[in-house]
Every structure is written in structure tokens, then in C-alpha cells.
Specification:
By secondary structure, the chain is of the alpha+beta class. The chain is built from four helices and five strands, in the order αββββαααβ. The strands form two sheets. Strands 2-3-4 form a three-stranded antiparallel β-sheet. Strands 1-5 form a two-stranded antiparallel ribbon. Strand 3 and strand 4 form a beta hairpin. Helix 3 crosses helix 4. The longest helix has 17 residues. The radius of gyration is 13 Å and the shape is globular. The relative contact order is 0.25.
Length: about 100
């Protein structure tokens, strides 16, 4: 939860070159031309990023979609968000 507290007011922004749905998967191309296939959960998480909502807003939105405890969703979302950052698919920006 410590990481969440540090980033909850940041706004995630996508940096992918292209994203396309293919059946139950989302295919995303990074700026380094790597291609990633996301399962349904990762797809939902990635598509919730709109460049306007904060991490906290996105978590609240996802809580409406998933039947899970908030602390579990926060942990999962932060882990996936960190993976998106590692793959250069998302950057976090401070809210102005």
C-alpha cells in the first residue's frame, strides 16, 4: 500500500504506439516496438487509463467492475501499473 499512497494522485498516460483488440486479448505495441498481449484483466486495467483520471480514480472505477476487496484491487493494479511502466507502455504524471 505504500507505493499506492505515493502514486494515487498521479495520472497515468499511455505511451503505446498502437493498441488493438483481438478476441479476448488486447495487443499493444510499445515505443520500442515490442508487442504485448494482455489478458482480460490487464486489458481492463489498461483501457481504464485515459490520461484524465488519477490512479485513485481508476481504482474506484475498477471497484465498480470487479467483485474484490479494495486492498486486493489496489495491490493488483499497482503491480500491473508497474509492469506497464517497465514495458514503457505508461508514464505517470503529476496532476497540475
Amino acid at each position: 500500500m505504500l507505493v499506492y499512497e505515493l502514486v494515487k494522485e498521479y495520472i497515468p498516460n499511455k505511451t503505446c504506439i498502437k493498441e488493438k483488440e483481438n478476441g479476448g486479448f488486447l495487443i499493444v505495441s510499445s515505443p520500442t516496438l515490442d508487442v504485448y498481449y494482455f489478458n482480460n484483466t490487464a486489458k481492463d486495467f489498461y483501457q481504464a487509463i485515459d490520461g484524465k483520471r488519477t490512479v485513485s480514480d481508476i481504482v474506484d472505477h475498477l471497484l465498480d467492475e470487479y467483485d474484490v476487496k479494495k486492498d486486493v484491487l489496489i495491490r493488483d493494479f499497482v503491480n500491473v501499473l508497474r509492469d506497464f511502466q517497465w514495458k514503457q507502455l505508461v508514464v505517470l504524471e503529476r496532476r497540475i
